[in-house]
Amino acid sequence: MKNLLTDISGVAVGHATDLVLGSGVTAVVFERPVIASGSVLGGAPGGRDTALLDPSMTVETVDAFVLSGGSAFGLDAAGGVQAGLRAIGRGLTVGTTKVPIVPQAILMDLLNGGDKDWGRHSPYRDMGFQAFEAIGKGDFALGTVGAGTGATTATFKGGLGSASARTKAGHRVAALVAANALGSATIGDGPHFWAAPFEQGKEFGGLGMPTTFDTDMRLKGINVTATTIGVVVTDAVLTKAQAHRLSILAHDGLARAVLPAHLPFDGDTMFAAATAEKPVADVAELMEIFHLATLVTARAIARGVFEATALPVEGAQGAWRDRFG
To answer: What single Pfam family name could you report for this chain, choosing any that match (predicted)?
Structure first.
């Protein structure tokens, strides 16, 4: 396993990155429609087609998820991914046409110093299509790429991270998260990550926990919207209601990696999907899948901050690597 979302068979990831704009788009495209759900626990979310993910809604499957910067302007990105999917014949059959189902979440990165003077129309629809064209099932970049391009946190540059794990029964669980929190992924002013207890190897530095803890609240501003958004996927057979529970357990991982989380000016949103390749034998196996959803989400957030680099603009927020190497 490569410790990436693409460790789940049938999942492809593509990025569109614009360092001058200081923003980007990440597309998560499934080889075939998958059972999906999601949940929103932040107080200032932005999304497209997120209501259909409620377990009580009729449509059970999606073709792709989109994570994007750009705040509300970024919601155009899903249209670009839809265009790519429609061109290859994907989508829910409605009469004589097909409608690709592409829920999206956005994060706020309009104040990071990038050039947002794009004219009449935002660039995000085109960037969504570029992200679709870039999808691949193997390795993909982390840090200041895709939806993590313009991400920031209270202490260091945010970014896009991913992590994966396998249950004792062999089910795979993986997360992809753009960490753009109002709070902090690190403890106090030091290099240690809140997610350190869950780290595998040295995926975000291997520093462990500090000897003392600074739990004072650190925010990147007051009345400044933020948002951490992500996707957690398993190869297990789940119902839509179980996928919804998977997304809630992913939020538990967010709360273990960012302090504070789910604030009134965060829009924290987690999507969840099940590719249904491996049956779940009993409740114990299901519980371990949920447990690992929490851990891979926390690890992915820390990796996103660890891998990030500062934007090439004046006054850009410094990266963890700038200070701690």
So the answer is: Peptidase_S58
- The residue ranges of every structural domain in the chain are 5-312
Fold held by 5-312: L-amino peptidase D-ALA esterase/amidase (3.60.70)
C-alpha neighbours within 13 Å on the C-beta side of residue 151: 42
Q: What is the largest CA-CA distance in the chain?
A: 64
pLDDT at 266 exceeding the cut of 60: yes
pLDDT of residue 223: 56
Give the angle subtended at the CA of 300 by the CAs of 295 and 305, to the nearest 5°.
Answer: 135
Give 167's contacts (C-beta < 8 A, 6+ positions apart).
173, 285, 288, 289, 292
Average pLDDT (223-249) is 93
β-pair type (172-179, 97-99): unpaired
Residue 194 burial (10 A CB sphere; 0-12, 13-18, 19+): buried
Q: Measured between alpha carbons, how far is 274 from 295 in angstroms, rounded to an integer?
A: 17
The 10s digit of each residue's pLDDT in 142-194 is 999 999 999 999 999 999 999 999 999 999 999 999 999 999 999 998 999 99
Q: For the chain, what percentages of helix, strand and coil (3-state, to nearest 5) are there?
A: 25, 25, 45
Nearest to 268 by CA among 222, 298, 228, 296: 228
With residue 79 as reference, give the H or E element that holds it: helix 77-87
Distance CA 233, CA 275 (A): 8
